Amino acid sequence: MIPIALSYRIIKNKNAYAQEERKLETLDIELYREKKEIQSQYDAVSEGEDPEESLREEIRKELLLSIEEDRKVLLEKAKEELEKEREEVLAQARNQGFEEGYMAGKEEGYEETLAFRKNAITMLEEAEVLSKEYLDENEEKIIQLSARIAERIVGETLETQEDSLMLLARPILQEYGKTENVIVTCHPDKVAFMKCQIPEIKAMCPKAHVLILQDRNLEENDILIENENQITDLSIRKQIARFIELATE
Asked: Which segments of the protein form a coiled coil according to its record (predicted)?
């Protein structure tokens, strides 16, 4: 190649020579490179390097790289699935624990309510027994106390009403309607009042002869009414005593 370029350069003129020289120089460089690469490959083969082995090594590296990438993807996916499963298990455990706790609390509350109810019933039964025992043991005292309270209330009521004695006498006088004699005995302070009531007494006992008497031993609101057949004591204390007698029989 080089000798041809030299002879070619001889027959050309100066300008042509310069142009061809530049072309030959470029061509020579590329040919030199190709030759160098071929020589390098030849040297490599000569030194014992197997191109097929190199190719296999390159393929092996690519496979290992691909396998490593797939392994990472699978590992990441497995981690995600494991985390998801763990969250589901935890959620299920929490729900189950909440449900069990709720049911346990509900059952415990029911048991406490039932126990409280039983205790309340027991206390009421005991209170009823004690109350009955107390009433049985203190019946007479309670009746006496009630009588005193009733006497005081009735006495105060009669004192506030002008015709208090007539409130007591009217029912009896109505029963004496056909009697011939009516005798009314009261406290001296009430004699004048009772005399004023004679017209009403005669209206209830039209055939009766009415007589008003006084007795200092009577209470101010006590009154006795009698006819030819019977005497009726309308004193509050006597009536309550009779009530006590009937209640304790």
From this structure: 65-99
